[in-house]
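Example S7 (structure tokens).
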């Protein structure tokens, strides 16, 4: 369903990704791990069509770069660092609904409630003025409410307190089994029970893949 073949990425003369190849199918829950600078976020950004890269990436049969708008309709994405959005929460919700197929206000509110985030009490607040944890919960609610075929999470719990992380991972465990989930995390123990495969990256290379049932690929 998703194919990454021989993908490379440079920023100037610095090689960030080096000949990376991965594939994902329905129901995959994959954690990408590695230290800072390993290339995890860059790989996700290439998958989402944010960067120009060498090699080939297809998502549900579509070129990730050339068909980016179509691909992103099927993707829920939570970045590691919340973007500098200047809209109020109300404006952000309305904007997200306007550009996304089959996204409803009811679904956004429902997911936010599961995350213990009070949207109704924050509608007039600018997104930029929320706490780090509240920003993350808002972005998670928007991503999950899309009911995506692919959910991409870049250190999604980084800004959440321990209780926030607990309710977040409980909510992730409820998503449909056929949804592909790709996440990065420095806390592999925290996501161990959510994933069926771990991909380790180092210095832009994929150095190891391990299925949780046991055995390297």
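Recovered sequence:
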């Amino acid at each position: 369903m998703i194919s990454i073949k021989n993908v490379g990425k440079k920023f100037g003369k610095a090689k960030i990704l080096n000949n990376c190849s991965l594939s994902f199918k329905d129901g995959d829950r994959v954690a990408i791990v590695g230290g800072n600078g390993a290339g995890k976020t860059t790989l996700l950004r290439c998958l989402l069509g944010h960067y120009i890269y060498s090699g080939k990436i297809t998502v549900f049969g579509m070129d990730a770069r050339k068909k980016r708008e179509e691909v992103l309709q099927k993707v829920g994405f939570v970045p590691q660092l919340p973007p500098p959005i200047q809209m109020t929460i109300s404006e952000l919700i309305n904007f997200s609904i306007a550009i996304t197929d089959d996204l409803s206000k009811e679904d956004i509110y429902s997911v936010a409630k599961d995350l213990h985030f009070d949207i109704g009490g924050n509608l007039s607040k600018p997104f930029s003025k929320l706490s780090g944890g509240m920003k993350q919960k808002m972005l998670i609610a928007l991503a999950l409410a899309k009911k995506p075929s692919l959910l991409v999470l870049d250190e999604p719990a980084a800004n959440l307190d321990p209780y926030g992380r607990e309710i977040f991972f409980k909510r992730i465990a409820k998503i449909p089994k056929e949804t592909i989930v790709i996440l990065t995390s420095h806390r592999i123990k925290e996501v161990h029970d959510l994933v069926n495969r771990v991909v380790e990256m180092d210095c832009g290379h994929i150095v190891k893949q391990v299925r949780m049932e046991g055995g390297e690929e």
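Notes on this example. The helical segments are 40-47, 68-73, 89-99, 105-114, 132-145, 162-172, 188-191.
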